Amino acid sequence: QRIVVRDLASRLGVSAAELIKQLMRQNVMATITQEIPFEVAAAVAERFGFTVQRPKSSEERFLEELQQAARQPAQLVPRPPVVTIMGHVDHGKTTLLDVIRQTRVAAQEYGGITQHIGAYQVETQGRLITFLDTPGHEAFTAMRARGAQVTDIAVLVVAADDGVMPQTIEAINHARAAEVPIIVAINKIDKPTANPDRVKQQLSEHGLVPEEWGGETVMVPVSALRKEGIDELLEMILLVADLRELRAPVDRPASGIVVEAQLDRGRGPVATVLIKEGVLKVGDPVIVGAVPGRVRALMDDKGQQRQEAGPSTPIVVLGLQDVPQPGDLLMVTPDEETARRIAEERAQRQRAEQLRPTARMTLESLSRMAAEGEARDLHIVLKADVQGSLEALQQALEQLSGDQVRVNVIHAAVGAISEADVNLAASSGAVIIGFNVRPDANARRAAEREQIDVRTYRIIYEVVDDVKAAMQGLLKPRI
Ligand code: GDP
């Protein structure tokens, strides 16, 4: 929205010269015939004593309508759990995903061939389970960093011969930060060197105590290679899902999260969307992130055309005007015009936001908040060069917790600061502290993009001093 200076002057009842002078005082150089943006016009109008009412954007109006609709009692139906497989490299995540798909997707039944669309559904005991096809906590946390959480249950794969490894611990911490329950699949039990008890022992040290030892974590021995224990694992997933009472409203405009998207030569932009609420139908006008469209066709993970898709269903959506990003939210709009206008507003906002820094948690911002008596809890991702320093630091930092501010080390590990660490910090509002380690190139880029406070130290008491100072509102800004 823009307005010509002359028109604004006449609406305000002041001369154009006066208006231009006032604009100059606000560092805006404009001529009488020039157009100025709404924000500038509003600011100058306020100087002349007017109060400005901003017209609601299409998006605001749309969201208000949605909220109003959400206040009506909804018809909740049970929905399948959405599962992500995590674990250390080579512990069998991919093999397990493939085996579950092969043994459980009855392709013949549909006369279709299984398609890799980023997620798939299997049927067990007459019930469905949705699996995300990208294993690992990196993708999981990258989505979370974008504000999208789709996973209900994490299956942590640990090889029985190898035991708990660094990425196993990383996965545990990432799942915990997201408050997603963990089921352990102790894999490769066919191997002569397999030692499931040792795995249980190691996991217990990280707070995952098996049920048979009085704990709460479900652990299932499996062999992905020999297809053993798969039914039991699926059964346990359903059991844990039942405890969570997963439900979704169906009588609402549909929404979902993009898990994968690309440009297809023949079909144009295609996006796999995991439906969260409502039922998406062919013909629905949609907005996906900043991309508008109308659903031209829906395709499931068996390559079959579908007329509609309900909660927890992964579905390929055709008919978008551009390729959205994983983590983008899809929403059905009342009409195509609304979708188009929201897309425009969002694109504009994205351009504006690229120029403006966002407010992330930093030690400095914590210090400012503490000084104003508004301290928040401090989440820390801690990386160090050796286990000894890591433990010493974690202890020293957590001991700083007081009534005002709690210090919470959400992830502590030996090694360089990685992109996964940055994503974890971004999705959990944490700062990163490195002791005798630095961020690698990818992590540095990601930290810059996400504006994460990454601090590196060589002396333990300096770490403790800085965090303490920040908690007390006394941290001196870095030069
Ligand atoms: P990912 O990196 O976690 O995805 O691991 P992969 O699924 O690629 O598996 C790594 C290796 O372990 C491959 O050579 C698999 O064949 C092997 N593997 C996976 N599951 C089993 C199993 O249950 N038993 C045995 N013996 N090998 C397995």
From TrEMBL:
Q: Where is this region: G-domain?
A: 81-229
Give the subcellular location. Cytoplasm
Look up the domain of life of the source: Bacteria
Positions bound to GTP = 87-94, 133-137, 187-190
| A single GO molecular function term of this UniProt record | translation initiation factor activity
Keyword check for Protein biosynthesis, yes or no.
Answer: yes
**Tr-type G domain: which residues?**
78-247
**Keywords associated with the record:** Cytoplasm, GTP-binding, Initiation factor, Nucleotide-binding, Protein biosynthesis
Major subcellular location class? cytoplasm
Task: State the function annotated in the UniProt record.
Answer: One of the essential components for the initiation of protein synthesis. Protects formylmethionyl-tRNA from spontaneous hydrolysis and promotes its binding to the 30S ribosomal subunits. Also involved in the hydrolysis of GTP during the formation of the 70S ribosomal complex.
Similarity comment = Belongs to the TRAFAC class translation factor GTPase superfamily. Classic translation factor GTPase family. IF-2 subfamily.
Q: What is this protein called?
A: Translation initiation factor IF-2
Q: Which organism is it from?
A: Geochorda subterranea
**In the UniProt record, what gene is named as encoding this protein?**
infB
Q: Report where the shown chain sits in the full-length sequence: first residue, last residue, total length.
A: 5 to 483 of 592
